[in-house]
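Bug report

Summary: C-alpha cells for IS3 family transposase differ between web form and batch submission.
Environment: batch mode, default settings.
Steps: 1) Submit the sequence below via batch. 2) Compare with the web form result.

Sequence submitted:
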Amino acid sequence: MTKYDVRFKINLVEQYLSGSNGYRGLVSAYGIEHSQLRRWVASYQLHGLSGLEKKHRFYNAEFKLKVLQHIAREGLSDRHAAALYDIRSTGSIGKWRREYDKGGLVALTPRRKGRPMKPPTPPSKSEASDETRMQKALLEELAYLRAENAYLKKLKALSEAERSGSAGEKAQVLQGLRPDYPLGLLLRAAGLSRSTFYYHVKAMSTQDKYAAIKSKIRMLYERHQGRYGYRRITAALRQAGEMINHKSVQRLMQQLGLQSLVRPKKYRSYRGAVGRIAPNLLERQFQAERPNQKWVTDVTEFHVNGQKLYLSPVMDLYNGEIIAWHTERRPVFRLVSSMLQKAFSRLKLSEKPLLHSDQGWQYQQTMYRKLLHEHAVVQSMSRKGNCLDNAAMESFFGTLKSEFFYLNHFESIEQLQTGIRQYIHYYNHERIRTKLKGLSPVQYRNQALLI
C-alpha cells in the first residue's frame, strides 16, 4: 500500500473543503482511491490535523467493545465509525467483530508480540466468577442493543409511511422480529407489556368480517380505473346482490385508501339572450318520458402534442346514452352532418325528437336546419353565453375529460380517437348512474323495453 505524508493529505483535503475540486477530480488527478480520500476528509473534519498524522495506537478490549456497541446501537457503517473514533484501518473493525462473535470479550483482548510469556498463575475462583459475570452482563447488553436497533429501524419505516405508531402497530413490528431476537428484549425496547403484545397479536389473527366486501370494492374501483366514488360503488355492489349501506362503503374505501379521481364540477350562473335562429324550447327540462323524445348535442375539442381533435356527440335525455358521435381534426360542417346521419338512422317513422344545441356556427347553418326539417326534428337553441341551458351535454364533456382525458397520456391523435371510442362504449354499457337506479344507460333502455 502506498504511504502518503501529512502535507500531501492536507493539500487534497483543503482542495476539497474549499470547493476548488471534488472527489472525482482529485481521485483522477492524484491516482488515489475514492474511499481513502473520503476517510482523510472525515478524519480531518472530526479530529483536525491529528487525524491525518501517523499514529500507532493500542486498542484495549473495552474500547473495541465500545465501538461495536456504538455501531449496533446507531446503525453506523464501519467507515463512519472508523472516522468517528480516529481508527486508521477500517478493516480492523471487521476483524474485531469476527473475533467477538467467535470468542466474546476475551477474544478482543490484544495479544503480546514476541515469544510467549510464562503462563500466569490461574486466578482465584472469586476473580474468575467476577470476570464471568462482567462478560455475561456485557453480552446481555449487546444483545439488547441489537434488538433495540432492529426495532427502531422498523418503527422509523412506520413513521415514514405516515403511520401513527400505536400499540397495535408496535406489536406488529415485534411479531416480525421475533424469529431473530428474544421477545423480552423486544418488549423492553418498545416499552410494551407482554399482555398488551399478546392482545394485539390475537386481534391481528382474527379474520376481518369485511374482507370479502373490501376485495369486491377494490375490484370495482380498479375495473373502472378510479372513476367510481363510494356512491357508485355502493350501487354496483347492490346490483350484484350485496345489501350494504353507502356509509359503510365510504368507511371501507377510506381504510383501503381509495378515492374517486374525478374532480367536482363548479356551478356558474348566467342567463344570456335568446338566439334569433331558434328559440330555447328545451328550457332546461332535461327529463324525457321515452327514448328519442329529447336530444342534446354540442362540440368539444382536445389538444394532443400541438394538434386538435373535435368531438360532436348526440345524447338521448331519456337515459343519457350517447346515441351517435363523430370526430374530425378540423371544425368543419362534416363533423356535425355525419353525426346527424348516424343519429337519424336510429329513428322510427313516428319519432320526431327535439334536438337542442348552443348557438355555435354549425347549428346556424342553412344545411343543418334543412337536415333537421327533412327528418321532422324540432330545433332548440340555448340562450347566448349560457352553458347551463345545455347542462346535460356539458356534464358529459366534463365527465369524459375528468374520467378519461385527464387521467391518461396520449402520444397521437389516433390513440386519442381509439380511447374515445372505448370510453363512449364503456359510458353507455358499463358505467352505472345513480339517477338510472344504479344501471348503465343501455341497461336502463333495455329494461324499459321489457316492461
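Above is the batch result. After comparison, the two runs are identical; trailing whitespace caused the diff. Residues 267-274 have pLDDT under 50 and may be disordered. The CA atoms of residues 387 and 416 lie 25 Å apart.
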